[in-house]
Amino acid sequence: MSKTDQTAQPVALEPDPQRWKALAFIAIAQLMVVLDATVVNIALPHAQASLHISDANRQWVITAYSLAFGGLLLFGGRISDLWGRKRAFILGLIGFAAASALGGAAVNEGMLLGARALQGVFGALLAPAALSLLAVTFTEAKERAQAFGIFGAIAGAGGAVGLILGGVLTQYVNWRWALFVNIAFAIVAAVGAALYIHEREEGRNRDRLDIPGVLLATTGLVALVYGFTKASTPGDGWGAPITIGMFIASAVLLAAFVVVEGKVKAPLLPLRVITDRNRGGVYLSLGLAVIGMFGLFLFLTYYLQLVKNYSPVMTGVAFLPMIAGMIIGSTQIGARLMNRVPARLLMGPGFVVAAIGMLILTQLSVNSSYAGTLLPGFLLLGLGMGTAFMPAMSLATYRIAPRDAGVASAMINTSQQIGGSIGTALLSTIAVNATTSWGKSHHATTPGLIAQAQVHGYVMAIWFAVGILLVSAAIVATLVTAGRDAVAPPAGGAGEEIGEASIPVIAH
């Protein structure tokens, strides 16, 4: 069709017939990125012993990844808008696989830490590209709800899957396979993306890259994540000069970033992306909810292995009901109701149900049974978070112009990454302080009393997580006002919004 014909006869674009196959490979990539955050946790003790990493430096195996990933997400999102989402997606997969191979083959501490940082760099390119591809590929309301339901379930359950996979690989193969396994995920996803993901060129952001914004956002976010890391590090803590200095630096850098973004012609993060009350409410509420989720995985892993003496594999299996709950909440409850009720009526109650599940887990004791306490808590937590995750993922790109899809997608990943970093530091500090206080007051010197002190610390941290989830629900009730059309505005209009004219065209 000629350019004249296209101008004279605007038509609604037909859905890509390969969209469901594309979703499968986008989902594989998302699973790889999410589970990598926890699969290494299980393997870390073995990696530490193998490479003779000191106790003081072992945290950097986790922190090197989170610093690079959290700090570069906005940059990665904008790169996907500039270069093209499919191109950024495939490049991110290839780079992530190469970094994983380097880490799995590490012969010393420095090589492993460098590989983990590289994983974070390419993950920051891959993650926002994946979500923005999903946002512009599915435009019909019912299908979009189903697609985001699947994606939300994977995003929510991937961490627990990582615990299981990490346990199996570490216990029965070798810790190095916790990294090597990413190569298989990446190859499958990259080949599938090349064959089945189609992206039209129109609507892409072709403005020049905002270099001052990149520098300010990256350094500000890295300083924030590093500050929370130091806050939870023995020997430093919240009052340490390095911790306070990092928080001050982060505040100054991010404030300067906001000022710059309001003035430059082509900002890295257009303020319109976050000032929309629906998107802003999603970023804030989900970031807070992840604080509780990350802390829970951490404490319950310790509880099951140190207090209940579960093996790494059994610890992973114990989290399966939570995964099942997330899948049911996301694909059955959320996807079925998403087109019938406003998103806030799924997200708000979802966070409340998750808080009830967390409340059950505050009843943990040294002698708690799995069936009586952990199982119902896991199920409710999974159902609630799965129901809330799915509309949150969709609202992240609600009525966003295609040129901003990548950075809007990056924002939801950024909120989760920063939330996870804050959660690990904040709740770890609460747990350690509560454990120490209880131990001193009860003169805990026997194994039984020491175990009780540990559980008391976990429970105190979980109480804070309950409160955080309730705050998330309140934020949703206050800020999120989008109607049920939020998941898929009518296709075929003349506007520039995702779901209208600027959606992917079939490219043969």
UniProtKB/TrEMBL annotation:
<feature type="transmembrane region" description="Helical">
    <location>
        <begin position="59"/>
        <end position="76"/>
    </location>
</feature>
<feature type="transmembrane region" description="Helical">
    <location>
        <begin position="175"/>
        <end position="197"/>
    </location>
</feature>
<keyword id="KW-0813">Transport</keyword>
<feature type="transmembrane region" description="Helical">
    <location>
        <begin position="209"/>
        <end position="228"/>
    </location>
</feature>
<protein>
    <submittedName>
        <fullName>MFS transporter</fullName>
    </submittedName>
</protein>
<keyword id="KW-1003">Cell membrane</keyword>
<feature type="transmembrane region" description="Helical">
    <location>
        <begin position="148"/>
        <end position="169"/>
    </location>
</feature>
<dbReference type="InterPro" id="IPR011701">
    <property type="entry name" value="MFS"/>
</dbReference>
<feature type="transmembrane region" description="Helical">
    <location>
        <begin position="281"/>
        <end position="304"/>
    </location>
</feature>
<feature type="transmembrane region" description="Helical">
    <location>
        <begin position="458"/>
        <end position="480"/>
    </location>
</feature>
<dbReference type="InterPro" id="IPR004638">
    <property type="entry name" value="EmrB-like"/>
</dbReference>
<feature type="domain" description="Major facilitator superfamily (MFS) profile">
    <location>
        <begin position="22"/>
        <end position="484"/>
    </location>
</feature>
<keyword id="KW-0472">Membrane</keyword>
<feature type="transmembrane region" description="Helical">
    <location>
        <begin position="418"/>
        <end position="438"/>
    </location>
</feature>
<keyword id="KW-1133">Transmembrane helix</keyword>
<keyword id="KW-0812">Transmembrane</keyword>
<feature type="transmembrane region" description="Helical">
    <location>
        <begin position="345"/>
        <end position="366"/>
    </location>
</feature>
<dbReference type="InterPro" id="IPR020846">
    <property type="entry name" value="MFS_dom"/>
</dbReference>
<dbReference type="InterPro" id="IPR005829">
    <property type="entry name" value="Sugar_transporter_CS"/>
</dbReference>
<feature type="transmembrane region" description="Helical">
    <location>
        <begin position="378"/>
        <end position="398"/>
    </location>
</feature>
<feature type="transmembrane region" description="Helical">
    <location>
        <begin position="240"/>
        <end position="260"/>
    </location>
</feature>
<dbReference type="Pfam" id="PF07690">
    <property type="entry name" value="MFS_1"/>
</dbReference>
<feature type="transmembrane region" description="Helical">
    <location>
        <begin position="310"/>
        <end position="333"/>
    </location>
</feature>
<feature type="transmembrane region" description="Helical">
    <location>
        <begin position="113"/>
        <end position="136"/>
    </location>
</feature>
<dbReference type="InterPro" id="IPR036259">
    <property type="entry name" value="MFS_trans_sf"/>
</dbReference>
<keyword id="KW-0046">Antibiotic resistance</keyword>
<feature type="transmembrane region" description="Helical">
    <location>
        <begin position="88"/>
        <end position="107"/>
    </location>
</feature>
<feature type="transmembrane region" description="Helical">
    <location>
        <begin position="22"/>
        <end position="44"/>
    </location>
</feature>
